[in-house]
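REVIEWER CHECKLIST
Item 1: Sequence provided? yes
Item 2: Single chain? yes
Item 3: Sequence as submitted:
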Amino acid sequence: MSTATNSVIPRHSRPRIRSLAAALLATSVSIALVPVLAGTARAQGSCVQNGSQVVCTFDYTGAADTFTVPSGVTQLSVEARGASGGPGAGETAPGGAGGAGAVATGSVAVTPGQTLQVNVGGAGGAGTDGSPGAGGFNGGATGGSSDSSYGGGGGGASDVRSGAFDLLSRLVTAGGGGGGGGAARLAGGAGGAGGQSGSDGADGASGTDTTGGGGGGGATPNAPGTGGTGGIGADDTGGTGDPGALGTGGTGGPGESGNPGSGITAGGGGGRGVFGGGGGGGGGITNTEFSGAGGGGGGSSAGPAGSAFTTGANTGNGRVILTYALPGPPSGGGDTSILPINLSGLIPIYNNIDTNTNVNSPKASNHNHQTFGTTAP
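Item 4: Structure as written out by the authors:
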């Protein structure tokens, strides 16, 4: 009998050690199949994993949010929803309704570790008989002023930005809706939806020289909307709304031209977008015929090639949704994103060979007994 010994284990202990080693080997195979991401999204939005995708939703907060691109992610799907404009004040007749915001969807290329800014537009405020509606967060314009029926505020745009986070760094933008025009005895014009012109205020009924305020022009991706013209009346001509500009809507026209805070009905503020919509014009007055003011124009939307846009599809505050696919397991080498188990670092595992070379005599003492030990490196 020749025997090479190294940490020989009694025979009755071997089955338990072999069973433990087999269990650990099975466990290591199972765990090795689970990928571990090297990074996760850091955002103020709410992120939820759904299968192989992660969806991060950003709701209105009144401030800019940030999103850090996770490791292994190079593409983001963006859905941005612009906010709606606020309604204009009404008296006998209703004030104009605020226009709904646009929805823009597109796919953008990103870099792992890149920080993006997310701005969710706020809805425009309602005009009252004492104050104009405030413009919504992220560029909505204030409604026009009068001494009776004030215009509604324009809705803010929703956008995602990179780089310097300025207006020229926007990747996807959904325009906000325009604010509604104020009304007295004749209805005010509704604000335009994101990307559309505001509707005109209603003309005075039987006052041949009395007209309602003109609706503010809707912005395009390349130019702002024009301000709506003021309604002309024998006793009062409404003020013209301000034009929109890059990243902001135009203020609604006052109830009386050249005299902010006077007149009866004031125009709605323009909505924000890539460019902002124009403010609606104030209504004209002849005797007791008080024309409605014009609604503000909607802001424009834009995105990378292949983006889709829907006009007037969102009411209330805006929203931004970012979606990305989870990176798959590595193809091998380099980065270790797989959990390994080194069994030799846990316990010694022995390869024992105990062979009876005398087949005809099972109880014979002619055995070849070898024991090999492995230790942790």
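Item 5: Key structural point noted by reviewer: Confidence is low (pLDDT under 50) at residues 1-43, 202-208, 333-355, 369-377.
Item 6: Recommendation: ____
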